[in-house]
Amino acid sequence: SAVISQKPSRDICQRGTSLTIQCQVDSQVTMMFWYRQQPGQSLTLIATANQGSEATYESGFVIDKFPISRPNLTFSTLTVSNMSPEDSSIYLCSVHSGQLYNEQFFGPGTRLTVL
Amino acid sequence: AQTVTQSQPEMSVQEAETVTLSCTYDTSESNYYLFWYKQPPSRQMILVIRQEAYKQQNATENRFSVNFQKAAKSFSLKISDSQLGDTAMYFCAFMAGGGADGLTFGKGTHLIIQP
């Protein structure tokens, strides 16, 4: 399994500002995924980040709001831009693992509160 | 697009009892994987068990087992000899085969193990 770390673990931000969340993996992976978990809700996929190409966003998520970088095979960032209280959520990154890419492992998450 | 449905928002059982969490899904994919994840209050997503759709045999991991009914598109999780540490949110998730997609999650079941 992959070991995934995220920074920061939590933050409290003012509306209108932006926050960049970092995700670091202990091994090289082709695809990284970003999820959002709103309070008391399930996880929703935001985007898939492949190294060397533009991220692919799910319906309802746009690059201007959630720009993603993937500079190498072990690192990715997600920025939450122009934040509003509705962006208060846990943001998690995950990676495939296993020979058949049939497992996904998650980072510990970043708890974001927007005031 | 696929959907995952968990119809039990919350369940409560006594320690040492057996409990079954329900999950149904809908997909037109022929190659896919199903997962159960556990999310304790620490919010770390922990992979409990995985089932490959092409396998008829139900997956088991120690006290955790699944009842996979492919024709009925049903994927329930059975926890035997439940322990206090099993208290958590449990999410059923779907992933199409090929490794390029993220996970689609159900809304989750909050499982409480009473002493």
Element-by-element helix/strand order of chain A: EEEEEEEEEEE
Q: The biggest beta sheet of chain A, please? A: 7 strands, mixed
Beta-strand content estimate of chain B:
over 45%
Give me the number of helical elements of chain B. Answer: 0
SSE run of chain B = EEEEEEEEEEEE
The amount of helix of chain B comes to: under 10%
Q: What report would you give on this structure?
A:
The complex is a heterodimer of chains A (115) and B (115). Chain A is mainly beta. Chain A has no helices and eleven strands. In chain A, the strands form two sheets. In chain A, strands 2, 4, 5, 6, 9, 10 and 11 form a seven-stranded mixed sheet that branches. A four-stranded antiparallel sheet of chain A has the order 1-3-8-7, with no helix packed on it. Chain A is globular and about 40 Å long. Chain B has strands at 3-5, 10-14, 19-21, 24-26, 32-39, 46-52, 60-61, 64-69, 74-79, 88-96, 104-105, 109-114. In chain B, 0% of the residues lie in helices and 52% in strands. Chain B is globular, with a radius of gyration of 14 Å. In chain B, the strands form three sheets. In chain B, strands 2, 5, 6, 10, 11 and 12 form a six-stranded mixed sheet that branches. Chain B has a four-stranded antiparallel sheet with strand order 3-9-8-7, with no helix packed on it. A two-stranded antiparallel sheet of chain B has the order 1-4.
